[in-house]
Amino acid sequence: MSRLLCRHFPRRALLARPAYSARSYASSASAAPQFNWEDPLNAKNLLTEEELAISEMAERYCQEHLAPRVLQAYRDEHYDPKILQEMGELGLLGATIKGYGCAGVSTVASALITRAVERVDSGYRSGMSVQSSLVMGAIHDFGTEELKEKYLPQLAKGKIIGAFGLTEPNHGSDPGSMETTAREHPTKQGYYLLKGSKTWITNSPIADVLVVWARLQETGKIRGFLVDRSMCPPGALETPAIKNKTGLRASITGMIHLEDCPVPKEHMFPDVEGLKGPFTCLNSARYGIALGVMGALEDCIARARTYALERRQFKGNPLAKYQLVQKKLADATTDAAYGVLAAIQVGRLKDEGKATPEMISMIKRQNCDRALWNARVLQEIFGGNAVSDEYHIGRHVANLYVTQTYEGQSDIHTLILGRAITGIQAFV
């Protein structure tokens, strides 16, 4: 197991059954296998001992430290940057990266962390995913060794915060039409000037460093730049928050405005151009989302099941006695089980270098769609009480709509798969 993770949680503690939930990965004492509604297809049997331990540790942290504060954070539309420091102390950030203060665990282990975080709230997972997959991933995959050594250890500890600027006000699903530009500084040799705007950028208002994708004016090619806020003169970089969201309210979202923002030439990723760079980062994040949303759906199932067993209607019967309620639970539990297995399989292939972008599109699309659909149906079990945020399921529904939309809306992933199946481009 990663020494970084072990330093914070001894193996015995990691493998112990958490007190907050009935969820347990311990082997059954009975010789006959028993159906476990929390893990219907025994997905844990596919995990290594290290992955099980990491999952337990992440679940414990999330339930003990994130769950108690999420409701008020969602109400207030407040994100506490200390959360990333807490995650960094446990080795949860950039977990697949080897070296630079990172844990160096498997792709599946990293996704199990996102599943634990999203079981509490998709907004918390979004903040973590941007830091880990999009910012740290971009620096690790495309940055110079100097950039890696300077920024990755601090990002891994959560001591500095990152944001990823790709989406623009006029170009969401069509990043190829990007308007943000980079041109050589006319008077300051060795610098570029970035000009343009990005929107719906997680972490941007509090980010210390921002990965920004811009079209190089001299070549027309899209290039990646690492913008360090501390290097920007007044007025060159603005990152206003986007307020009054109806989803992901426990994360912070904003814009990026660049007005001839000077960036050293050394902060341009040297060996990647075009959309390969951002799409490589997005594929890693999309994979984490695919297993992450299963955590949100599993929380909806657990809450709906508890409510159905406790709520009594019509001659004192629990709602769980009624066939329509049982069908809702059975459908959701089946989709969650299938989604987890698919994500684990693709994670294994990713570590073996055998995963394709279309595989990730498939599980991102399917798992996000089914998580949202099932969460909306499970919401019906609560009746009018679902409107109260104290039952949490309405928050999950609002969040899951966003997860279906960002990092490739489901219709876009449909077209990616359609192109792979038929060989015909249907985007335009």
Question: What would your notes on this structure say?
Answer:
With 428 residues, the chain is of the alpha+beta class. It has 3 domains: 3-20 and 37-156, Butyryl-Coa Dehydrogenase, subunit A, domain 1 (Orthogonal Bundle), CATH 1.10.540; 162-267, Butyryl-CoA Dehydrogenase, subunit A, domain 2, CATH 2.40.110.10; 276-422, Butyryl-CoA Dehydrogenase, subunit A, domain 3 (Up-down Bundle). The chain contains 12 helices and 11 strands. The chain has helices spanning 3-8, 11-15, 49-76, 82-89, 107-120, 122-142, 145-156, 276-310, 323-351, 357-379, 393-405, 410-422, and strands at 98-99, 102-103, 162-165, 181-184, 191-202, 209-216, 222-228, 237-238, 253-264, 312-313, 317-318. The strands form 3 sheets. Strands 3, 4, 5, 6, 7, 8 and 9 form a 7-stranded mixed beta sheet that branches. It has a two-stranded antiparallel sheet with strand order 1-2. A two-stranded antiparallel sheet has the order 10-11. A hairpin with a 5-residue loop joins β6 (209-216) and β7. α3 runs parallel beside α5 and α6 packs antiparallel against α8 (276-310). The termini are far apart. Residues 9-22 and 24-28 have low confidence and may be disordered.
